[in-house]
Design goal:
single chain; mainly alpha; Na+/H+ antiporter like fold; Rossmann fold; 6-stranded parallel beta sheet; Putative Glutathione-regulated potassium-efflux system protein KefB
Length: 586
């Protein structure tokens, strides 16, 4: 009937996904839990093995469940493509070349050793050798989509994980081809097909590298001149989809093209803008992928085979963690890095599902066997964030951070509250002038990291009186508050001033208004970070565009004096506070 609207299945599924994202991200962020678990749980709930089973009995459930699970697969694949694209944006060809030893050394050893060992173990358990080989290498993969957002790419753990994951992504195509060649009824041209794919794919990669270096700077320059975010987004999508399709046409994985596109854009001056524009799309598409993982978990089957599935999950996780950690130690990694990376990389991967499907279609494994290991893989993906937390705990256990030297314990020293970037920079400056200090923070991870880097730091909550007393606040020459928590800083200043009237208290303020509150609470000095950074930026730009240094410094002092007057007025102070970053102010 004309004018009558009825929601299509695709529109209904889109509403379910967007609604899930609107619930999962804020709720799980509120409790500091990664949304990965939330999206997988949503997939279990709204998938065909969850509420989807009840649609025939309760038709209204069709509006809150996924009606076409297969239709989400392209979007899930696009999420992984965008992830590899953004990884390329964070890298560069120079950095990738520096990582070649890790990628083709550690990455190759990790995949080959784990894959072969698992294949041998499965073969000994009765699996035919071709199927065992397929299962072994399928389970050897680790999840790029989940691991890298957790580990990042710049920390020691992130660099080790990235190198292994990059090699795994490169090896997807050869492994799938080899499985096809091992099929009972495979054609004799399987090896020839692999060779054709490799040389054709190589030509495409070279073409992308050449054309990208020439065309991409011009393309994004034109987009930037229009000052149109829509055109910039369109250009970014054109590049990533075009590069992915180019490698996919030759038989290579589309994620290879996405990675190359990211690397090429990373060499231009527009990589920051591209990364910012693509971030929301990557996050949503990855959410779709995680929902599809949850939809593949049949809780009834899990319950019926709970013992076997649990045993398989535990054995795979423990074995992969042990082998990866041992390889990292043999290659010179610290014990803490090896332990944390090994546990983080222990779970199977989204690529495992691809390899299992290829092995099943090639009749190397039975459908029931494929379904069993698909459930094991889905559960492994679900617990990856928990493995990341376990890895951090284990890292602290196997390589305890050094304790404070005994001679520091009774020595008067400046107490720095907060062991983040600002606190450690202050510690560096105190150390450079041979002034003793100790940093205090209630974040155990920050303290462990600082102590491993050689800083004198200890765990504790500054809001509790015994923590500061234990560090000798009675004899401390100063306390520096660096935390970015305005209310907590204000309360702590007031508490310290009441207990120690003569103590020098220097506090980091978020802005001039917060600085006024800190002065009112009793701070000796409050430094507004927005004010000082703005004044320093002004000084840099004025000098570099030709203004003489003398007038620039005079105008900065004048501006700082204006804020001093404002602080005196807004803070109801009976004195004019000092806003100083040098000895210029009296």
């Amino acid at each position: 009937m004309a004018g009558e609207l009825s929601p299509s299945p695709m529109l209904s599924d889109a509403l379910v996904i967007l609604g899930s994202a609107g619930i999962v991200i804020p709720v799980f962020t509120r409790f500091r839990i990664t949304p990965v678990i939330g999206f997988i749980l949503i997939g279990i709930l709204v998938g065909p093995f969850g509420l989807g089973k009840l649609v025939f009995e309760y038709p209204w459930l069709a509006h809150v469940t996924i009606s076409d699970p297969d239709g989400l697969e392209p979007f899930a694949e696009f999420g992984i493509i965008l992830l590899l694209f953004t990884i390329g944006l964070e890298l560069s060809f120079k950095r990738l070349w520096q990582m070649r030893r890790l990628v083709f050394g550690l990455g190759a050893l990790e995949l080959m050793l784990i894959g072969t060992a698992l294949a041998v173990a499965l073969s000994m358990m009765g699996q035919y050798w071709t199927g065992a080989l397929a299962l072994g290498f399928a389970l050897a993969f680790s999840s790029t989509a989940i691991v890298l957002p957790i580990s990042g790419t710049t920390s020691p753990v992130g660099r080790a994980a990235l190198s292994m994951l990059l090699f795994e992504d490169i090896m997807i195509v050869p492994i799938v081809f080899i499985l096809g060649a091992m099929a009972p009824y495979a054609q004799s041209d399987g090896v020839e097909g692999l060779v054709d794919t490799l040389w054709q794919g190589g030509l495409v990669v070279v073409a992308l590298l050449v054309l990208g270096r020439i065309a991409l700077p011009r393309l994004f320059a034109q987009a930037a001149r229009t000052k149109s975010p829509e055109l910039f987004l369109a250009a970014s999508m054109l590049v990533v989809i075009g590069a992915s399709l180019a490698t996919a046409v030759t038989g290579l994985s589309p994620i290879v093209g996405a990675l190359i596109a990211g690397l090429l854009i990373a060499e231009t001056e527009y990589h920051g803008e591209v990364e910012a524009i693509m971030e929301p799309f990557k996050g949503l598409a990855l959410g779709v992928f995680l929902i599809t993982v949850g939809m593949s978990i049949d809780l009834t089957t899990v319950w019926d085979n709970l013992g076997m599935i649990s045993l398989a999950v535990v054995l795979v996780l423990v074995f992969k963690a042990a082998v990866t950690g041992l390889l990292l130690r043999l290659m010179g990694a610290r014990r803490s890095t090896a332990a944390e990376t090994g546990v983080l990389m222990a779970s199977p991967s989204e690529t495992t599902l691809i390899v299992l499907a290829a092995a099943s279609s090639a009749m190397l494994i039975q459908p029931g066997t494929a379904q069993f290991w698909q459930i094991v893989t889905a559960i492994g993906l679900t617990v990856t964030p928990l493995l990341a937390r376990l890895g951090r705990v284990l890292a602290r256990r196997v390589e305890a951070a050094p304790e404070l030297p005994e001679e520091d314990a009774g020595e008067p020293r400046t107490i720095i509250v907060g062991a983040g970037r600002v606190g450690l920079l202050i510690a560096d400056m105190l150390d450079a002038h041979d002034k003793p200090y100790v940093a205090l923070d209630s974040d155990a991870d920050l303290i462990e990291s600082a102590k491993r880097d050689g800083y004198r730091a200890t765990f504790g909550d500054a809001g509790r009186g015994d923590a500061l007393s234990r560090l000798g606040i009675e004899t401390a020459p100063a306390v520096v508050l660096t935390m970015d928590e305005p209310v907590l800083a204000q309360r702590l200043v007031a508490k310290l001033r009441k207990s120690y009237p003569d103590l020098l208290i220097v506090a980091r303020a978020r802005d001039p208004e917060h600085a006024a509150e800190l002065y009112r609470a009793g701070a000796s000095h409050a430094v507004p970070e927005t004010l000082e950074s703005s004044l320093q930026l002004s000084e840099a730009v004025l000098v570099d565009i030709g203004v003489a240094m003398g007038p620039v410094i005079a105008s900065i002092h004048e501006k700082r004096d204006e804020f001093r007057v404002k602080l005196e007025r807004d803070g109801n102070l009976d004195y004019r506070p000092k806003l100083r970053t040098s000895n210029a102010e009296a």
